[in-house]
Design brief:
By secondary structure, this protein is mainly α. It is 77% helix and 0% strand. It has 4 helices and no strands. Helix 1 (9-24) packs across helix 2. The longest helix has 37 residues, at 55-91.
Length: 94
């Protein structure tokens, strides 16, 4: 099974911009997608998601993605602490 490649919002917006430039210069959307190595469905999904995203929205989206990553890291650290405490309790103390 092929590994899925994740693109950041900035990368997606840059790819959309490149495809739009190609279309303006006479390429088809399908050719632009092929060059960018994304599917037409992904292009359409990104177009729908980022069509109204200006710089402010892109910045806010990036901040939310960073906050989400930090929260995920904190949750994983808390889970590790919880497992360590359970292990200590199961052994009967320090």
């Amino acid at each position: 099974m092929a590994r899925r490649k994740r693109h950041s919002s900035e990368q997606a917006m840059e790819i959309l911009r490149q495809i739009d430039e190609g279309v303006a210069n006479g390429k088809t959307t399908a050719e632009g997608c092929l060059e960018a190595k994304i599917t037409k469905a992904m292009y359409l999904r990104w177009r729908k998601e980022y069509s109204d995203a200006g710089d402010g929205q892109a910045r806010r989206l990036r901040e939310l993605e960073q906050e989400n990553a930090n929260l995920k890291r904190l949750v994983s650290e808390l889970c590790l602490h919880k497992l360590a405490l359970r292990d200590i309790i199961a052994r009967g103390g320090p």
